[in-house]
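Record 1 of the preview.
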Amino acid sequence: MKALIYYPNQSITIEDREKPILQPGEALIKVACAGICGSDVVAWQGGFKRIKEPVILGHEVTGEIAELYEQSSHGLSIGDRVVYEPLESCGQCEPCKSGFYNVCRNLKVIGLDRDGGFTSYVKIPINRIYKIPDTLSSEKAVFTEPVAVAVHMVKRANLSLGQTVAIFGAGPIGMLVAMVTREAGASKILVTDINDYRLGLAKELGFDVFDAKRGDTKSFFLEYFGEEGADISFELAASPQTIKWALDITKIRGTILSGGIFKSPPQVDLQKLTLKEQYLVGTRVYTFADFEKAIQLLSKLDFSVEKLISERVSLQDAIHKGFEAIIRGDQVMKVLITP
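->
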């Protein structure tokens, strides 16, 4: 089978690999489609130093059960349409024992730390597999993992009905956070970015937008939300400037959720945080409950993630039309790969 493989010398290539052999407690999934995540691009650029061996990338995946090591495993059957949660936790550290396996001290990700879904077949622990309803298309279901990320972020921000929300960064996660906050009852949502294509798509999806390269961002936000500012700011651009803006435009005792992957540690004036008694919240991936909620949201007809799909490419074209297009800043939002 063909597979898209990352090498620790910051190169990716398409190569032949043998079909995985199952071990006890595993299922083999025939991949229907897979989404390119920003973390896949970060991996290609050498952003995950822990990766020491060549690995098949890809963790946003949907497909069907092709083989089971044990036929009665967890109610799964050959042919079931599924998605999977790509986390592997140790189960032994204090966070795991406390029920917070998403922040396991030894957390591994299928598709980064071991072979993932940019290929024809991927083997997955059966306790990380979720069946999806027949009414949910594969292209929509492939968003389960990133929607779970967004759900976890909104839960971590402790959003209440009627609160106002600022979102810095209109990439795939920023757009999904906007959609989840709308579902959760936010009264006003403002999305900002510097990418015209992404801002246009956000507007098409019904969100208010602001182009951060065309004016005084702080003044615009305070005019939009009122002089007190937004209740919650989601910093998803991983920019030193946007985290500063988030502190400025979030109200007293408001919440700033930091969800971007910064290339280097940003300089942040924590005195503002102290004087305004703001909450600065971190977030990491998701839990099984977030995954289940993501499937519920995606099953709704009006949760229109399909509009975020900008390209559908073959595995052979994934490097040029997917990874390189994202790096170039082309008009892309979510690129799906069909093996």
